[in-house]
Design brief:
243 residues, alpha/beta, two-stranded antiparallel ribbon, 9 strands
């Protein structure tokens, strides 16, 4: 997979590319990551990428020309890729959306700044718009880092243990169960006995119940779409949601 990022602050991504899963995935040849300075596709001495909005208003708007030039240049190197704008107006990033994007051969992420990008970029250039939540950031860079991290760890071979993905929060529609390690007793707080007994069937049952309890307490909205048995639905799904 290949992920290219267009931004006016490419240096922000240096740390992400050089540590953890992103670094290992690149070394293993699973992904190619690159960040490009949008100002390289300007033609004035100030390398301007923004201007005042038509109609007035606060702030500056990013001009369309640099974006179109940059995308046209990057797409000359096939495959063209899926141009994705990081914006609070996009569809919210979820586990399913992340899997969808991870299946792409190439992504080109557009990181806006200021008051946003010229609407013609949205209408005629990008293929997708992604939001990481209902709040506003100063730019798309942090959102792009979240997206890259979420995607790369889904690539086959990126994680050391394949089962790690299957047991994570939101997999199967539930939050993850609690984890414990040594020592078994820390300041009087003991690891649950079931985890120390070696009975794998009992451990699996306990973990499943913990997932359901935790999801019901923290994210009850997830239970409605989760893959539950009839018995689990009766016990954990609110009566109003069973309808």
């Amino acid at each position: 997979m290949r992920i290219d990022i267009l931004t006016i602050f490419p240096e922000i991504f240096a740390g992400l590319f050089q540590v953890g899963i992103a670094r290992r995935a690149q070394e293993a040849g699973l992904v190619t990551l690159a960040a490009y300075d949008l100002r390289e596709w300007t033609d004035d001495k100030h390398r301007s990428v923004d201007d005042a909005p038509y109609g007035g208003g606060a702030g500056m708007v990013m001009q369309p020309e640099p974006w179109f030039r940059a995308l046209e240049a990057l797409r000359a190197d096939a495959p063209p890729g899926r141009a994705t704008l990081l914006t609070p107006q996009g569809r919210v990033l979820t586990r399913n959306v992340t899997r969808e994007l991870a299946a792409e051969e190439r992504l080109i992420l557009l990181c806006g700044r200021y008051e946003g990008v010229d609407e013609r970029v949205r209408e005629h250039l990008v293929d997708d718009e992604i939001s990481i939540g209902d709040y506003v950031l100063s730019g798309g860079e942090v959102a792009a880092m979240v997206l890259v991290e979420a995607i790369v760890r889904l690539l086959p071979g990126a994680l050391g243990a394949a089962e790690s993905l299957a047991e994570e929060s939101h997999e199967g529609g539930l939050l993850e169960y609690p984890h414990y390690t040594r020592p078994p007793d820390f300041r009087g707080w003991r690891v649950p006995d079931v985890l120390l007994g070696g009975n794998h069937g009992a451990i699996a049952k306990w973990r499943r119940e913990q997932q359901l309890d935790r999801t019901a307490a923290r994210r009850p909205d997830l239970l409605e779409k989760a893959d539950l048995t009839p018995q689990e639905r009766r016990r954990w799904l609110p009566a109003s949601a069973e309808g």
